[in-house]
Design brief:
about 250 residues, mainly alpha, 50s Ribosomal Protein L17, Chain: A, 2 domains, three-stranded antiparallel sheet, two-stranded antiparallel sheet, 10 helices
C-alpha cells in the first residue's frame, strides 16, 4: 500500500520541498502574506493552518512541534504570543488564497497571494425553534369515540405483529434467505407457510437486491414453516434429517 504520498511533489526532492515550505511559512507568519504560485500556496496553506492550531493550544509540546516547521525563533514567538490569541475564537480557516490575473513570465505559472485572514469571526446564529401556538381543542362527537382496548391485549397484538420468527430454523434457509424474505414481508413461519414456492419466487424476483435467490428456493420450505408455526418441532426435526438443503432426499 502507498502511505504518506499525498500532496504535490512540485518537481523537488522531499528534503528540498520540506525546507521550501519551512521558509515559505516562516515568511507568511512574519509578513502575514506572501506571493507565490498557486500550487505552492495550496500546499503551504495546510502547514500554516496546522501551526496556528498549535499556537492556539499553547502548550509546550505544541511549541516544540511548531518549532520544527519554522526557521526563525522570532517568528515562533510571534506565532504563540500574537497569532494564537488572535485566532483563539476562530474554529479554522486562518488563511486564504487570492489568485492573481495573468501567468508568471518565463514559465507561465499561475500566481496567487497567500495571506492570513482577519481575526474577527462571527458564528452563524442558530434559528430559534418556534414554539407551537395553542389551538382550540376540536369538539369531540360520538363518531370520534372509539372502543378502548386494554393495554395487555394491545401489547400482545403488537408483539405478535412485530416479532419475526427465526426463519433459519427451516432446513435450507440461511441468513441470506432470511434477510431476503424479511425484505419482501415474509417474517414469520405462518407467512412462509401461506406462500407457495411460485409465490415466493415471484416475491424475490420483484426485489432487485434478492432476485438472484429466486431459483434456489426449496420446495419443502412452506410445509416446514407450517409445521414450525403449529409447534410440531419433533416431527419437523425428524423430517429435516431426511432433507438436504430443503430438498427431500427420500424422493430420489
Amino acid at each position: 500500500m502507498r502511505h504518506n504520498v499525498r500532496g504535490r511533489k512540485l518537481n523537488r526532492t522531499a528534503s528540498h520541498r520540506k525546507m521550501m515550505f519551512r521558509n515559505m511559512v516562516t515568511s507568511l507568519l512574519r509578513h502575514e502574506r506572501v506571493k507565490t504560485t498557486t500550487a505552492k500556496a495550496k500546499e503551504a496553506r495546510s502547514v500554516a493552518e496546522r501551526l496556528i492550531t498549535y499556537a492556539k493550544a499553547g502548550d509546550l509540546n505544541s511549541r516544540r512541534m511548531a518549532a520544527r516547521k519554522l526557521t526563525d525563533p522570532a517568528v515562533l514567538k510571534k506565532l504563540f504570543e500574537e497569532l494564537g490569541p488572535r485566532y483563539a475564537d476562530r474554529p479554522g480557516g486562518y488563511t486564504r488564497i487570492l489568485k492573481l490575473d495573468g501567468p508568471r513570465k518565463g514559465d507561465n505559472a499561475d500566481m496567487a497571494i497567500l495571506e492570513l485572514v482577519e481575526a474577527e469571526f462571527t458564528p452563524k446564529s442558530k434559528k430559534a425553534k418556534s414554539e407551537p401556538t395553542a389551538e382550540a381543542a376540536p369538539e369531540i362527537t360520538e363518531d370520534d369515540v372509539v372502543e378502548e382496548i386494554p393495554a395487555e391485549e394491545a401489547s400482545e397484538d403488537a408483539s405478535e405483529d412485530t416479532a419475526p420468527d427465526d426463519l433459519t430454523k427451516i432446513e435450507g434457509v440461511g441468513p441470506k434467505f432470511a434477510e431476503a424474505f424479511q425484505a419482501v414481508g415474509v417474517v414469520t413461519f405462518a407467512d412462509l407457510a401461506a406462500k407457495s414456492v411460485d409465490e415466493l419466487k415471484a416475491l424475490l424476483e420483484g426485489n432487485e437486491d434478492y432476485a438472484s435467490l429466486a431459483g434456489r428456493i426449496g420446495d419443502t420450505w412452506p410445509k416446514q414453516a407450517g409445521m414450525a408455526a403449529e409447534g410440531q418441532w419433533d416431527e419437523l426435526k425428524t423430517w429435516q434429517d431426511e432433507l438436504n438443503g430443503g430438498v427431500d432426499k427420500s424422493k430420489d
